[in-house]
Amino acid sequence: MLIYSECRSASTSGGYASTGADRPCCSGPGYATPEDATHAPPEGLLYTTCVYRGVDSKKPDFLATVDVDPLSPTYCQVIHRLPMPYLDDEIHHSGWNSCSSCFNDPSKSRNRLILPCLSSSRIYVVDTGSHPRAPKLHKIVEPEEVAEGSGLLNPHTSHCLGSGEVLVSAMGDAKNPGEGKGGFLLLDGETFKVKGNWEAPGFNPSFGYDFWYQPYHKVLISTEWGAPKAFLKGFDPNDYANGLYGKSLHVWDWDSHKYLQEINLGDEGGIPLEIRFLHNPRASEGFVGCALASSVYRFYKASNGSWEAEKVIQVPPKKVDGWALPNMPGLITDILLSMDDRFLYFSNWIHGDIRQYDVSDTRNPKLVGQIFLGGSITADGPVKVTHDEELQEQPPSVYVKGREVTGGPQMLQLSLDGKRLYVTNSLYSGWDNQFYPDMMKTGSVMLQIDIDTKKGGMTLNRSFLVDFGKEPNGPCLAHEMRYPGGDCSSDIFLVETEAKL
Q1: Which of 79, 112, 415, 474 has its CA 20 to 30 A from that of 17?
Q2: Taking the domains of the chain in order of start, what are their residue ranges?
Q3: Per residue in 65-84, pLDDT tens?
Q4: What's the rounded Cα separation, in Å, for the pair 113 and 129?
Q5: Enzyme group, top EC level (predicted)?
Q6: For 245, which DSSP code?
Q7: For residue 105, which of 26, 1, 5, 214 has the smallest C-alpha distance?
Q8: What span, in angstroms and rounded, lies between the C-alpha atoms of 159 and 104?
Q9: What CA–CA distance (Å, rounded) separates 425 from 406?
């Protein structure tokens, strides 16, 4: 067995290298510990999923390579675009073929980016290793392969496993397209063929979405969005009332892959989306952001071995005129934890703010930073706030380099050292068009926020702007971001893993 603590400092000089000749103990991808990851070289590139579905049906989605090296002559520019061969995919989230969970395996390399597609149910595999600044398409897993191999559709989150395989969550039922079904499919880490279902035969939740695994505590926990026939057409509050959206967490045994328990959060945890365990591989707790309820729950392992959850953050709704409903929720759509597990960040996509909490005491998060970047309550917009428990006045519109930030802050990615937070503002094309129709014409943006890692606090970097409204093929919607060297929302660390024989 390879013990986690034995390789604790082996990767501090490894940087983005995946072979790590200067790391004598372990030489696989990633880092031995979260602390080692915080000493990584600064990120130089960002891979960003970009969507034309819903904006222009005649153009394919693409993967953008963005230069984020401030010393580069192409800083803040899209330096490469990899268009997909099909239309109307809705590339959404992404993940790596290997990460720090494979740190002990020198045969593994973080060189393939996995791109599941919400609408088409394809899974693209992109070669980022051969030419990091100009990735190329490596393989396509067609929707028929996904359906026949797993009985699932509408894939969402992908994580690499210590075994070298890739685990992908899904939200749709192949036998009943449009209906919800929470499950997982395994991809071979070399061929990327569908190997079958990860979960043991038997029960599947009605809904799926995100997940995180924790082998030390022998658990995987997944979340719920809703039935594809509901969320693919745009958000209708009646669909939530009619049970087409979720409100539960699901606990799975890591070794047997059997379903263990449901944690029903109730309406106060309506639509739990992004879930994050603490990065500490021995930690038995983490956080989940609940979109519709605008709340954050802490989940944890109880003394009797079961898993429980408690609400630790609540964003109050605002009473408004001039909006679809009289009460406007924040709509928490993305959350992440800094690599040192000190700060929790989340985006309120409709209110328009990003919040930073000190979670040193995980049961009592403290708000230490807040910044507004667009949203639906700007002072010069059509919505009038009539009662607000938090703000004295409506925030102003935000302009960066003369460009107004339309939409609201959505996807987040933090540098490994915790000092730079990157933000895009597209959620999903159908919901973008519903809540921020102007963004379909202007396109989305990428912004950068400077972080005070000592006391907490956030400052918008007004010299950083990637304007996806000025793409050569017209405005598009930018969504998730990944660094070639790994990041705070994809790398999972193991306490001990099987040594390679």
Answers
A1: 79
A2: 43-499
A3: 999 999 999 999 999 999 99
A4: 9
A5: oxidoreductase
A6: B
A7: 26
A8: 17
A9: 8
